[in-house]
Amino acid sequence: MKTTNPRVMRWIVLACGLCFSGLALADDWPQFRGPRRDGKSAETGLLQRWPEGGPKRLWSADGLGDGYTHAVVAGGKVYITGMIERQAVLHAFDLAGKKLWHTVVGPEWAASHPGTRSIPTVHDGRIYLTTGVGHVACLDVATGEKLWAFDSFERYQAPQVKWGWAESPLVFDDKVILTPCGQKAAMVALDRKTGKEVWASKPLAHKSSFCSPALVTHRGRRMIVTHTDAAVVAFDPEGGKLLWQHPYQNARGNHPDTPIYHEGLLYVTSGYGLGAIGLQLADDGLSVRRIWEQKRQDPCHGQAVLLDGYTYAASHRAANGRWSCVEFKTGKLAWEHEGIGRSGSVIFADGLLYGYSEDAHVGLIKPSPKACEVVGRFKVDFGQGPHWAHPAVAEGRLFVRHGDVMVCYDVKK
User: Fold this and answer.
1) Is the pLDDT of residue 20 over 60?
2) For labelling alongside 54, which of 64, 197, 349, 382 has CA 20 to 30 A away?
3) Residue 328, domain CATH
4) SS3 of 116, please?
């Protein structure tokens, strides 16, 4: 049907604009640190400032169990884990907060700082997750039915990780990547549908160290980059060959920060006062060399975000937990500021940084290498225990978890 009626044409244009603006707004947060594991969302149409006291609360869920995991959002559902009676439990909600189901996944870490650590990964109708004691499972997203599961520490003869295994599974090319660092393999790839081994790398004289791996592409060469307790390492995603390793250790052997790759450079940090370093990859991707060091920025569990050539983070032991901005290529400190509170985690959505400090403040920061400008803040008045869970943004909502409680806020304009 053709029409030249101006009124009809205006309605058609308006309708198309509404459809496409709706598509542009929504962005899932389906795994650790968001769609690309870099802490960044493509969500748009969000509040650029918050009213006094923070954005509107939409709903809350309690009784999740002990844990430090953030929410993941995919396909109109919200998933989050918690430990109940020493078992990891995965909970599923709809976007209105209605409980859909929960599944007992397997034994969970119940020693020092007990609770869930691994962020679930949602991919093509399935959920993949690990527990702090090495249990690995795959569940159906619609029902929570367990499709396959096994003990990775037993299978690969891996030692228990101090403070619990905190790796979140990486999924790509029908593979699930894990780093048990056992006597039989350092890193393994599993068939995501069956859980059967696709490849196993040679073992290293290292231990697994809380880090969630990332898949990066450097000059056409793909590699899986992660931390062990002793080094930054890279493996070939096709067969598990070790491509390179660079010594990197802190006083605790705890390296939770996923390295950030951009244009041949890796940003590496892990907290505990060690600071951050820049590693330049060789053109062939088979070696690295350190080109800078920055002692003032040392995020730990909270990670960092790279935006327009600068990394933003809250320090851990360095700089008394202040927030900072560092030039990615040189390691030069652009600024340092109290930000929204001492230490914490950071993500990015619709032009703004969302931070959650370890002293219970959630806030908005305008990213700029010139200054730190806080444009919204509220205090978390629910839950218990350390404030270590990251915020998550999806579907115009902000999800904040503290202890066994999760609250969903409306952050749409």
Assistant:
1) no
2) 64
3) 2.130.10.10
4) strand
